[in-house]
Amino acid sequence: MKRQDGNWKPVEGFYWYRKLGNRVCAELDCGSAVSVKTRVTSSDTDNWSVRPDCDEPELSDCFTPATSLYTSLELNCSDSVRLVHGSSLCSGRLEVRSNQSKSWSSVCEGHLDLHGAQVVCRELGCGAPGLLQGVLYGEAEAPVVQTFQCEGHESALLDCGSSGSQTCSSGTAVDLTCTDPDDVRLVGGASHCNGEVQMKHHGKWGYMEYGTYYDLWTLKAADVICRRLDCGSAVSVRRSGSSGPKLPISSYCLLSTSTLTDCLRTDTDSNSTPLFLTCSGKSTDDGPDSVRVLP
């Protein structure tokens, strides 16, 4: 990022999460954020720090001068594939940009099968395809006039074979929803709706971090976990005492998405404690009572 004096300086790696990194990828016209990581540097350096609750229209308004504690931000963008106008980084209308084209284009419905959807979801760092459907594309958009022929093992959509197509006869574009690759559970409580929050990331379970003074959990953010477990709404959040690997999740981020991977922060505190969550235990779809008549 450029300073007011015209010189460039790095951005420190603390407090970042993937959804926030997605704003940087968008400003650079580089697709969607695939991953955000903390890179260790050899010494302290003059850099920028970002506010974790950043919701300013201009991303630059979220940065303040700082001195890095031996870290900088490493951001990986998808470059040629992205999902737009969805509820998370893992859902939305599919757009691609070929090596020759500088503009983004929708993909016609029917020109991408399940194998191709698997490639897209994997390329974006998301889980398996959960929903593949068609949505109307705007008159100003120019759909990609080619059919992608993937086997499912390719690392990128543009690595797949393709065949030409003259038009999108249905007038619809591919809308794709990938599943969240991370799972969540409550352990050590009186029921499955009460306990320490554990999250499964890259195949391993870790305790969800309670947070620090700059990103503490609120009941509104914890509601996302309760709803995902079909446990109604959050009643209380507190610190717990178990030891083990910690996974820091930005509570600010969860206010605008239910996808845990979008909100996994780059930093963690070695002195942090797990989050203990109590949910109401009633699904919001069941009304005021939790009794059901089963067939």
From TrEMBL:
Subcellular location, record wording: Secreted
Keywords: Disulfide bond, Glycoprotein, Repeat, Secreted, Signal
SUPFAM superfamilies noted in UniProt: SRCR-like
Covalent S-S links between cysteines: C150-C160, C253-C263
Entries under Pfam families matching the protein: SRCR
A GO MF label: serine-type endopeptidase activity
A single GO BP: zymogen activation
Domain spans labelled SRCR: 1-62, 81-179, 184-280
Claim: Nuclease is one of the keywords in the record: no
Family matches, as PROSITE patterns: SRCR_2
The keyword Chloroplast is annotated on this UniProt entry: no
GO cellular component, one term: extracellular space
Entry protein name: SRCR domain-containing protein
